Amino acid sequence: MEFKYILTGLRKCRGFSQEELASRVFVTRQAVSRWENGETIPKIDTLKRIADVFDVPISRLMGFEDDKLCLFRQSEFVFSYRVAGILVRDGNVLLQKPDNTEEYALPGGHVIFGETAKDALIRRWREELCAEITVGELKWVEENLFMWGDKPCQQISWDYIVKLKDTDENMISDGALSATYKEGDSAAVRFYWVALDAVRDISVYPSSAAELLKKLDEPLQHIVYYEDMK
After folding, report:
1. pLDDT, tens digit, for every residue of 10-61?
2. Shared-domain flag, residues 131 and 31
3. 150 and 218, same domain (yes or no)
4. Same domain assignment for residues 153 and 50
5. 54 and 90: one domain?
């Protein structure tokens, strides 16, 4: 992920305006704006101050951790190790969907090498939803084989029950934009509350989600999904 997206997401999650961030790292608001528009990047001393403000390593600011994602693209196939969270509220489940598709999925992302699945899930919800969560029981283990662009992908996904630490669960509004994107980005991801009874009427992964969401009180489920590769 590019620096401009990482910085914008961190700033939004902390609730800082561009002016507030600028004052904390001793630059102008215009400088922050140029960073977030991808026109320039800060010098190393300023990067250190930004990292201190957000309590993250410089490697994360610069997107170097992307090189450690458990997402391996080979010449003929892709392997993906993902985690996702199942959050149900008042008969609705929280799902994510990019603006350029009609396919929904559970909110989450790829694990970074050396990271536990639960830590990865906490990090992803913090980065994208600015939400602090507690991770509960592992409910679904997915084995998926599908086309990732022009290559077959084999994906393992662990799906956990999650709860928001904040008592105000209305903090995630319907249609909320991921903090790692800006309005107008073609592949921007948004989050939607979907009625459990309506999940069967949309394209969602895992494809058996509509039935599985009715059985969250049952033991761990193992899901195997093979997409038609023809």
Report:
1. 888 888 999 999 999 999 999 999 998 889 988 888 988 998 998 877 877 7
2. no
3. yes
4. no
5. no
Q: Per-residue DSSP letters for the chain?
A: --HHHHHHHHHHHHT--HHHHHHHHTS-HHHHHHHHTTS----HHHHHHHHHHHT--HHHHTTGGGGGBSEEE-SS-EEEEEEEEE-EETTEEEEEEETT-SEEE-SEEEPBTT--HHHHHHHHHHHHH---EEEEEEEEEEEEEEEETTEEEEEEEEEEEEEESSS-GGGS-TTEEPTTS-TT-TT-EEEEEEEGGGGGGSEEESTTHHHHGGGTTS--EEEEEE----
**Domain end marker among 66, 97, 121:** 66
Task: Tell me the per-residue pLDDT of 172-223, one tens digit each, with 9 for 90 and over.
Answer: 889 999 888 777 777 889 999 999 999 999 999 888 999 999 999 999 999 9
pTM: 0.79
pLDDT, one tens digit per residue, over 101-131 is 999 999 999 999 999 999 999 989 988 888 8
Q: Which domain holds residue 162?
A: 69-226
Domains held by the chain: number: 2
